[in-house]
Amino acid sequence: MKMHIPSIKTSLLVWLFSAFSAFSTNAITQVNDEELRIVVVANLQQQELELSKQQVKSLFMGSFVGHELKVVTLPPSSLVRVNFNTKVIGMTEDRIQSFWAQMRFSGRKTQPKELNDIDALLEYVENTPGAVTYLPSTVRLPDSLQVIYTLPNSN
Amino acid sequence: MKLSRILFLSALSGFSGLSATYSYADTPEFRFSGFSRVVLGTLDDKNASYEGYDNNISAGEGSLLGLQLDVDLSETFSLTSQLLAHSSENRNSGVEWLYLSYHPIPELNVKLGRQRAPFHLYSDTLDVGYAYPWINPPQQVYSGYLFDQFDGIDLTYEISAEDFNAEFEAYWGEFKDELSVSSVQKIDTEVTNMLGLVLTVKSQNFTFRASTVNTDFSVEIPEMKALADILYQLNYTLSADSLKTQGKVQINQLGMTYDNIDYFVKSEITQVTSPVIFVPDIISYYVSAGKTVDSFTYHFTYGRNNADFAEPVVEIRAGLDPQIDALSAGYQTIFDTFPNDVLTSYALGVRWDLKVGMALKAEVTHLRGVKGERSYFNIQDLEKFDYKANLIQVAWEWVF
Q1: What is the rounded (10 degree) CA torsion for A93, B135, A58, A35?
Q2: What whole-number distance in Å separates Cα of residue B133 and Cα of residue B301?
Q3: What residues in A contact B203, CB-CB < 8 Å?
Q4: Average pLDDT over residues A17-46
Q5: Is the separation of the CB atoms in B239 and B331 below 8 Å?
Q6: What is the pLDDT of residues B315-327, one digit of tens each?
Q7: Chain A contacts of B392, Cβ < 8 Å?
Q8: I need a surface site. Which of A15, B24, B135, B202 has the fewest CB within 10 A?
């Protein structure tokens, strides 16, 4: 397979240039702080449980945290998810996706189930014992769900 | 029948028995997924090639397509198969993975069947370029293993604490393979009794990984064996012993990664030791640092290794008999022709995540070999080649 080298080199340069010019923009739109405050809630059938930040991170990255929990999340386009990634997981969505590709194709762990919006999340968690998810703190929680972690505001 | 063969066949029969098992089930869950990469590259040197890249732009050895089928047999059992189609001449396309998973409790996962050995952080997903930041994972650590698959069992057990999470992994197995040493020459290799242990600890933004593998390894080379037999007959026992084509191989590894929202650091160091004549004692490592800006991740990666083959034994006295001299010369020649892969590399690259599951990458790697060694190069002109070259690559990575 042969190609005309100069044209490839030029397009590579253009591509690198556009990569650098993207430095100045920021993909995350500013949203009300309260909207972005996050709680992690679970359907534990009234059992007591409180997780540390490390445990919440481990749980959403597929690790075992001592309890049989079923993680469900919002899709990558969700701002709540972006905020959760930034403040709890500490990685960008792209790197999280890379991690899940590594886990899936080495047969280690399976990516959490994704549901499209908060209503669907709430319905799933309410009807699934052991289900756990994150939500904006402004969402009114049904009595059957309990908060197992609250992200401090200052974080 | 050997145990690993039984394990492999049991995984296989799991597949063939699927239709029978699942004609009774309500909703058998089949999941198809896959990965693909297209890599183009060129080496800016006319006198050598490197991993299939020469002075023209070519698809090299890295382009591939993998398909994975996962079937949930029950709450605790599932079956996975991965098929691979490959552009490399030195690898066979076909069943790469085929195993039965057993997940009885959340903290334990058992895999039975054909798998890739998790020697290093990315060893078992080297084909999935989307999983790592580079186009070429540092070759000093990741290339050149004489074996990377096995038929056997892998157990992973997790423990959790408030500030950390730990994973213990143990695997055991064996594998018979036909290794391509060149486009025309193939040799039979056998890995038996391979035992590996891995400890991974994750805390905050850090991941630490330590692993060790010990295996029996043998290579079938009739010419080498014939020479050793003659040496034994003539009582040159030390010389004959030094032509060992079987023995233990030990691989030790330490790795560390740090990830946060803006940047990452990854580093791994590996030591390989073995009395087998073809397996040099190796120390190799890399350090990689990356910065993320929106959808772009830039990395700089430094890699280096040192490989030492055994020295020939000084036992045969020259000048006694022309035939013995010829034998001695033949013996020396074997040691002189070992291709030693000693390399220092500096890579600069960018990865652009276009959308979930798809990325473009560009990478420039400055390669510095050692004069007189092979240094992973395929050298066309020994006189002109200065053991320095730049590899320029672009890649398209996709998982689905």
Answers
A1: -10
A2: 10
A3: 54
A4: 61
A5: yes
A6: 888 888 888 888 8
A7: 12
A8: B24
Binary contact (A107, B97; C-beta < 8 A): yes
Alpha helices in chain B (DSSP H): 3-16, 18-22, 139-142, 222-233, 237-241, 322-336
Q: Any chain B CB within 8 A of the CB of A94?
A: yes
Cα(B268)–Cα(B285) distance, rounded to whole angstroms? 5
Q: Determine contact, residues B366/B393, Cβ cutoff 8 Å.
A: no
Q: Is the ipTM of this complex over 0.90?
A: no
For residue A104, what pLDDT band results from cuts at 50, 70 and 90?
very high
Look-up: residue for tokens 């903290």? B107
Closest by CA position to A110, among listed A121, A100, A95 = A100
Domains plus CATH for chain A?
Answer: 31-150 (3.40.190.10)
Residue contact A2–B35, C-beta within 8 A: no
Q: How many other CB atoms sit within 10 Å of the CB of residue B184?
A: 6
Nearest one of B205, B285, B215, B208 to B246, comparing CA atoms: B215
Report all structural domains of chain B as residue ranges with CATH numbers, in order of start.
Answer: 3-399 (2.40.160.10)
* Residue whose structure tokens are 């382009």: B63
**Closest Cβ opposite residue B399 in set A27, A66, A101:** A101
Low-confidence ranges of chain B (pLDDT < 70): 1-28, 89-90, 144-146, 180-184
